[in-house]
């Protein structure tokens, strides 16, 4: 299975939302990371053929994708950011509605819905109206509707937005479980969401892919630039001026800081985190 994005650009009037994006996606979990407005949703919308890019091509198994390529359309499961317009539906009615849109027969739909509802522990609330759901319940419902009809490409747009740490961990585990033999793309600006599950991270900024690789490779790539040091509190403003500061802890002896600095200085070098990868490439 191969999904290839080649030289894709998208313009909305004067706004260059995507600028010559190139990606080669095979089975695995991809974190699509970028700040607000960096082009994540636009890229997802092009991949799902909701919008057509201004230039460039997207191919799935060597065939260009569009709304008439139904085999491709049926291969996509999308978890959108929110669930508008369905407040008065019960969870179960919503799932049958989506199953029908996906062309599932009643019997298949029932089997899949029952299995998925059970898996994410929604049985107790599935006959309640969606407007009575908590954020975590809504996210779980959105997650499992994306899995109906067993799609090969799963796209999750900010899947953990608004979730508490417990629900976040749960959702991350579900994603990990369903990832075998699929292309899973998780768009987010929260590094923690993809930290333990992404095989590959795509960093996007101002519509451009600025870096793309395995988490270990990205960490390795900034190794010379991450430093830690004890400083006097009075020197902190100077450090803030000169460097990107990734953390500050006040200790009895002074301020312990981690910061990014272009030159490599062996004495203060520290092991980078993925958040520092974000800070380095995307801010
Ligand atoms: N329909 C549209 N019309 C005009 N400009 C748009 C449209 N959709 C997106 N944009 C612009 O394109 C750029 C990329 O937006 P996009 O929504 O893809 O970013 P994002 O990374 O998904 O952001 P967020 O994290 O806030 O969801 C932004 O400057 C945005 O204002």
Molecular structure report:
- Helix content is about 30%, strand content about 30%.
- The model has no long low-confidence stretch (mean pLDDT about 90).
- The chain is α/β, with parallel strands linked by helices.
- It is globular and about 65 Å long.
- Among the domains are: about 5-75 and about 150-215, Rossmann fold, CATH 3.40.50; about 220-280, no CATH class.
- The site of adenosine-5'-triphosphate has 12 residues, from strand 2 and helix 1.
- Adenosine-5'-triphosphate binds next to strand 2 and helix 1.
> Taking Cα atoms only, what radius of gyration do you get, to the nearest Å?
21 Å
| Main β-sheet, spatial strand arrangement | 6-7-8-3-9-10
Supply the number of helical segments: 10
* CATH fold name of the domain at 3-75 and 152-213: Rossmann fold
Low-pLDDT sequence parts: none
What percentage of residues falls in helices of 4 or more residues? 25-40%
Oligomer: single chain
CATH superfamily of the domain at 3-75 and 152-213: P-loop containing nucleotide triphosphate hydrolases
Pfam families: ABC_tran
Domain ABC transporter: 3-231
Keywords: ATP-binding, Nucleotide-binding, Transport
GO molecular function: ATP binding; ATP hydrolysis activity
Protein traits:
32% helix; Rossmann fold; ATP binding; globular; ATP-binding; P-loop_NTPase; 4-stranded antiparallel β-sheet; 283 residues; ABC_Transporter_VariousFunc; 6-stranded mixed β-sheet; alpha/beta; 29% strand; binds adenosine-5'-triphosphate
